[in-house]
Amino acid sequence: MTDYLPSYVQDGWWTPSTPAGSLSAPAGTTEVRDASTGEVVARVSTDGLDLAGALEFARKTGQASLAALTFHQRAVLLKQFALALTERKEELYALSARTGATKSDSWVDIDGGIGVLFSYSGKGRRELPNSRVHVDGPVEPLSKDGSFLGRHVYTTLPGVAVQINAFNFPVWGSLEKFAPAFLAGMPTVVKPATPTGYLAEAMVRILVESGLLPAGTLQLISGSVPDLFENLRLGDIVGFTGSASTAESLKAHPAVQTGGVRFTAETDSINASVLGTDAVEGTPEFDAYVRQLVTEMTSKAGQKCTAIRRAIVPTATADAVIAAVRARIAEKTVLGDPRAEGVTMGPLASTAQRDEVLRQVRRLQDAGGEVVVGTTDAPEVLHADGTTGAAPDGAFVSPILLRFADAQADAVHDVEAFGPVSSLLTYDTTAEAAALVARGGGSLVTSLATHDPVQAVELATRIAPFNGRMLLLDRDDARSSTGHGSPLPNLVHGGPGRAGGGEELGGIRAVLHHMQRTAVQGSPEMLTALTGVWHTGAAATSGGRHPFRKSLDELRIGDQIVSASREVALDDIETFAHFTGDTFYAHMDEKAAAANPFFPGRVAHGYLLVSWAAGLFVDPEPGPVLANYGLENLRFVTPVSPGDSIRVELTAKQITPRETDEYGEVRWDAVIRNQKDEIVATYDVLTLVSKEAASTEPPPHPGARLETGRTT
After folding, report:
1. 412-463 pLDDT, tens per residue?
2. Which of 63, 208, 405, 423 is deepest in the core (most CB within 10 A)?
3. In angstroms, rounded to a whole number, what is the distance separating the alpha carbons of residues 246 and 307?
4. Degrees, nearest 5: CA angle 404-408-413
5. What is the DSSP letter of 59?
6. Bridge partners of 241?
7. Is 692 a catalytic residue?
8. Which one from 176, 201, 296, 305 is the annotated catalytic residue?
9. Tens digit of pLDDT for each residue in 9-52?
10. Known catalytic residue: 266?
11. What is the rounded radius of gyration, in angstroms, for the C-alpha atoms of the chain?
12. Which of 266, 285, 504, 665 is catalytic?
């Protein structure tokens, strides 16, 4: 008998049990079958699973594990997870073939999911502080004397992130939600779709066996969770991927409506691809459009939430597009078992899904759609043994393109056949094309193939409110483009209206989705303590050892140097002007400068002042400071005239150790003032500083024996 697919809950593997001597299966048992052959792969049931206990384990144990780590430490773990999966990804590829995925399909799912982990690891270390609180936006002054400030901060939500995933991407779909939640500090419970859940289970098993997962941070439930929402509470998040109708019913649950549970949905959408009026047959844009359309029809057998469902083309070009699509499918598409050599398109995920797709195709036909490419008849396919024939137990459907004479037919803008199916519509004006795109009621993505910037701008500005993402495809980016149907971890994935109204991925935006933004009001001292970022007016320590002589371990927020003053002479201004070539009139022509409303007469170059400031605060000898690698937020406030003097205050503002390097980043608050104590300029200086101070002792002689008895 085929084994039950286990769940991973409370840091242990769990399977349903059958009472001794009983011949009956656990309640709710579902058989999962190979998409190509119909062979039973696994059985699934959650009968007896302690769902409430799993959620509470995440909230307590998982939250505690992640709270002990900074953003950067979590980011490093994400990279290690990615490496662990990479080492064993061939195991995942072998299982993926049973879901109907070709090697190319599996690459998108498996390597794509691993790539998400790598991407968030990098973004977390580059774009987040090495702390547990994220500061959002600049300081908001709330008092004239600077003693009362406002700041927006993000802190981790106290609950669990629950994933309800679709069947089409069991690896990528799990990891694209897990990565930002983990980085934000939220534990995750993954609930994969049953038809392909065995692949998600294998992915989780690899992570568990790696020994890298902090306790309670990742759990897996194989099977149904009918009472899930009854066990959720304020601070929890549900991330749903699936049908729009299911999303609407879940969104209506009291836990979401009044209980404070955050619910985000990424649902099916009637995505479109528009061929520009300039992209006639023979142009690179026409060819790119056809290639992309066929790819989106056949990749993952069309089982992608981002697939092209409506091909919107100029009336005059419609017949050429149909002929080109037919020819390309005939040339490039081999339908069959993904384990057979040469197969480029596999079956749908299950026979139930096959039947549902064909039912939706019939609805489209009844609404006026004419099948112009492909057929709804059962296809002959290439079997794993190399033979060709029927596969009644497999979930195979041929690529199908329908043509609608009436582009306004309601069904084509509402009915989605979630398989290798697209519908062709025609338009005469850009306004008509935009209106057709909008009829989808909100989409994840629309693409436009054109080399005409005027049409691209007109269409893009009209349809942007109806899409989460747009792809502008032309001859210049066709080769490098990742394509219509490829969500990327650094870009928003989601869409308005029917597409769900939520956002997944999107870089750090997705991380912040798992956190709470709070406006905090307080004194500079309190805000410094909360954020780990020094605020003007908070305590500063000057005098004593120069801050540049302190290693990262020794340096403290608020360590400061106040420099001596330096007078600016007219000769200095002229020397700098001629040396750099910057002879702008404000520095060289007294009369013209005085006529400028911003200057009293000739003034010093701003960059002269910044250069002098560096000379005033720098400690030149070798030490912990390794490099100055940036200057940010520079603002010139008060002009400096000949005879004025300047000084600089440099304060350690933020200290960010790098987890994998022997140095870290220090952000210094720099303020240049004149002899009247007026602010001349403000900016941040970025330096790289060693974590530990270099030893001042000479190295021991080679071979010398130390007191410990060890030799060097």
Report:
1. 999 999 999 999 999 999 999 999 999 999 999 999 999 999 999 999 999 9
2. 423
3. 20
4. 80
5. I
6. 266
7. no
8. 305
9. 999 999 998 765 566 788 889 999 999 999 999 999 999 999 99
10. yes
11. 31
12. 266
